[in-house]
Hints:
Distance between the termini: 71 Å
Number of strands: 23
Strand order of the largest sheet: 4-3-12-7-8
CATH architecture of the largest domain: Alpha-Beta Complex
Structural class: alpha+beta
Radius of gyration: 26 Å
Strand content: 25-35%
Number of domains: 3
Shape: globular
Oligomer: single chain
Largest sheet: 5 strands, mixed
Amino acid sequence: MNKVQENSTENTVSDRRAFFKKTAAISTVAAAAVIAPQNLLASEDDHAIMHHPSWGQKLGDPVTANLYGMPSKYEHNNTRRNTPLLASGNWQASIAVTPIHESCGIITPNGLFFSRSHGGTAQVDPNEFRLMIHGELDNDIVLTLDQLKRYPSVTRTHFIECPANGGQEWRATQFNSVQFAKGFMASAEWTGVYIKDILKDLGIKPSALWMLAEGSDNSEMGRTIPIDKVLDDAMLVWGQNGEALRPEQGYPVRLLVPGWEGNLCVKWLKRLEFASEPFYCKEETAKYTALRKDGKAIQHFYANEVNSTVTSPSPEKPWTDLKDGDLIEIEGLAWSGMGTITGVDFSFDGGRNYVQASLKGLILPKSWTRWSIMHTYKKGQVLQLTSRAMDDAGYIQPTIDQEVGELGVEGVYHRNAVETWEVTKDGKVNHVQIRS
């Protein structure tokens, strides 16, 4: 380094030190009024602020480095995760869950959207894609991908949730992780066509009371859907968050049944058949039913009930670095397959007392809704954080005791009781259950 460069560097550091000394008093006062605590303010001995960073002293990557953009290498922990406990002896019939504790807003990036398959991810050639629509219709049709896309498209934001989301927790907490406890879901902006708009061209007979959706993957996943839902808001989608569906999301076309069980949103779609009776497929007889206490099983119950969870703090994002008196935002998600979230109650004592949380951002039907509440942290205080959501259909989350009293503990589907996250005296977070 020559003499001019040395003097320039010394002057820069000196100027920055002078700046911090000049503003120290102001910063100390301001720290009491804003979220950033005083002990986290930058100081003159902070190398990261006192010296020019290495990445600013050299040219960055060219714009041609990644023609399909990639996340920062420093976001390597923000990924879907899986566990053998949720696999059926192999990774083809398994699930990879969304890191909801890292989510921002109500849109899940395509690379983090939870993935569930019954026979592995099919790699479909879009040039060979064919969709057959037939049965109790005036006219049958077979569509290519290009022909399907000629119908008037719509774009809607909805969540997709596995009906077993949270179900593995009901005998007792198994995963000390919000990702594994509630990550069997994600939310996206979907582009496609309403099925009812296609049926306007084909004509539907009065006898068409049910629709079978069948996939082209190895499992040939099939599910039956009542015609009322088909004619309401069921969609055939090819776009997700502004791009084509990813293969694990059913590329090139999947069914979207907003608010209803994720397994109804059949991927790698190949056939829609209309009939007068349900088809009683494997996944709606042997699977995806709920055994009641009287020994009878509930079948054909579709909508995911009103639900919520705390996402921060969590076991993945604890409060171990907080100091006494720090102001911190508690944040979470609420959703309902019945309609639109109207409010979220929040408790610091496991549901004995509730206050009202604030809803944030867009509030859309059958979509994630983000909520939060501000809290002044007290070092050594034990908290039991519980959220309770309600929707415009009049539903409210039950307690665990209320739900177990109705459904027992054997079924893993459609469990939507309130859950609790304990903050220990040293700021760690544990998934707990509170029963009367």
